Amino acid sequence: MARKVLIQVRRGAESSIGTLAAGELGYCTDTSKLYIGTAAGNVLLVAAQSTGDMLKGIYDTNNNGKVDAAETADAVPWAGVTGKPGTFAPSAHTHDVLSVKSDNWKQADALPSTYDRGLTVFFSNSPANRFDGVQYCTVMTVKGYSNMAAVQYLYPYNQDSPLRYRYALFNSDTWLPWRRIADIDTVMPKGPLTWGQLRGDA
Questions:
Q1: pLDDT band of 48, cuts 50, 70, 90
Q2: Ramachandran quadrant class, 134 (left: phi over 0; alpha: psi -120 to 50; beta: rest)
């Protein structure tokens, strides 16, 4: 039987195969890859397994631009994840002592030593144990160095009234009497200050 005409394709080392014409095949003798030329350049058709390459038609069968194995991993339920820790403990850290705390609610007769160091703010509405006789008020307490020394401010709720304060001295777990912060509208309505006003008397 007569031998048919042998059709050969361009072949050579991959580095020297060059740019193929549209529709032209090129075989790489060193890597066993097969390319076809397109208007956009050479496109890989077949890659030998020994090269480690994989065609898009194998790893992205639905042609959505995402590897099929990654799509499977995205759908794994949390219970199906192996090797995860049982708990997620926070790393070691500290807080500044002068941090704000809003859950350290106290009665008016609570001793200075019962307050945490730092800044404590809460709203008091105790009818029986009032701060300076005020039932509804915001109370702010500041403690720094000492376990007892502190200053406490009181703002009567919804009242046009001067701020009040009291403090406790170092090494004395006792609040001193409440005082009012004077302002010019209340202490000098008509003329000079009185001695009682200078002392902060009510």
A1: low
A2: beta
